[in-house]
Design brief:
This protein has 208 residues and is α+β, with helices and mostly antiparallel strands. The protein contains 4 helices and 9 strands.
Length: 208
């Protein structure tokens, strides 16, 4: 009799454990599928004379939280950064230059149009240097301009030794520090607000 009770209790306990695991999987599943994946789908660095130019494409789906904020009139700032590095076998790679571009993406509820503004330099210096604005009818069109860079000069190569190799480290991210303070508090540390990726590539030799 005692043995039967123990067997019954063991079976009930196993079923309870399996049920708890199943419920936990259901609870975590929406979180796993809601995570935004950002990747550098294309990255190319080419040399023309002593100048290095980068072309890149970033692939990501705009998180729903970010899109909701945009529709409420809150602009978003995406930042692209590139470092030109000289490879050194005997020590760490030497950074020879570092550049940054900022993309401001915004929605105008009155006109129902999207706009982007491209600025060179850090956020604090966005009023200096290159500044290009453009208007779009849809969010997809505006995002397409943010996700792609071409013929971006990232630095100069002064070494004439053909044996010296260079590479470019490219980074792309949504800059949460430029959000209004209430949004920063709710967004920082939340995976649904995460849009960031990085990649490296070698600088192709100059075509003769």
């Amino acid at each position: 009799m005692v043995s039967s009770i123990r067997t019954w209790k063991s079976a009930v306990l196993k079923k309870a454990v399996l049920w708890m695991r199943f419920v936990a999987c259901l609870a975590w599943a929406p979180l796993a599928f809601s995570q935004n994946v950002t990747e550098i789908s294309q990255l190319r660095a080419e040399r023309s004379a002593n100048e290095v130019f980068v072309a890149a494409k970033v692939a990501f789906d705009l998180p729903s939280a970010v899109e909701d904020a945009l529709l409420k009139g809150i602009p978003m700032f995406f930042v692209a950064e590139a470092d030109l590095l000289q490879e050194r076998w005997y020590w760490y790679d030497r950074k020879t230059s570092s550049v940054q571009r900022q993309f401001r993406l915004a929605y105008q509820p009155l006109t129902r149009r999207w706009s982007t503004k491209l600025s060179s330099g850090a956020a604090a210096d966005s009023s200096q240097g290159l500044a290009l604005s453009q208007s779009y009818e849809t969010l997809a069109q505006a995002l397409a301009s943010v996700k792609q860079l071409s013929q971006w000069k990232v630095g100069d190569i002064t070494e004439v030794d053909p044996n010296v190799k260079y590479k470019v480290e490219f980074r792309f991210r949504l800059d949460l520090s430029q959000l209004p303070r209430p949004f920063q508090i709710g967004a920082i540390g939340q995976s649904e607000w995460s849009v960031q990726a990085q990649a490296r590539t070698s600088v192709l030799p100059e075509l003769k």
